Amino acid sequence: MARYVDGYVLPLPKKNLAAYRRMAKAASKVWMDHGALQYCEAVGEDFPGMCGTPFPKLARCKKGETVVFAWVVYKSRKERDRVNAKVMSDPRLAKMMNTKPPFDMARMSFAGFDILVEG
Asked: Which domain holds residue 15?
């Protein structure tokens, strides 16, 4: 089954974790209501740095920040485009966009991915 994933990585001040959780719970409802198959937001807890670039460095974390790694799964790229168009016009998301986010959006990374392997 071909599926498509939007992925996000962003730095989050640890003091804003509760506010971010509230925002993410509301956003998950919007995405799922419009057809996303899965919506997940995970907060960094273990950064061993044994190989590659550690996530905090990759996300340019400052002191007191951690990393959020998030993804949304769709049936296909076409379905992702349809869902995101609906999400962007949803008044619940518009309400969220009118408040200051609990993280620095300029340091957020976002991209779409074709699933290569799924177990």
From this structure: 4-113
Residue 28's domain is classified under what CATH number?
3.30.70.100
Span of 4-18, 47-61, 62-76 with lowest mean pLDDT:
47-61
Distance CA 65, CA 70 (A): 16
> CA–CA separation, 102 vs 99, rounded Å?
9
Structural domains of the chain, count: 1
**Distance set, CA 44 to CA 14, 16, 47, 55, 76 (Å):** 10, 14, 7, 8, 28
Q: How many CB atoms lie within 10 A of CB 72?
A: 24
Q: What is the mean pLDDT of residues 59-80?
A: 95
Q: Residue 1: its pLDDT value, please? A: 64
Classify burial at 106, counting beta carbons within 10 Å of its beta carbon; exposed 0-12, middle 13-18, buried 19 or more.
exposed
> Residue 71 in contact with residue 7, Cβ under 8 Å?
yes
Nearest to 106 by CA among 59, 64, 70, 71: 59
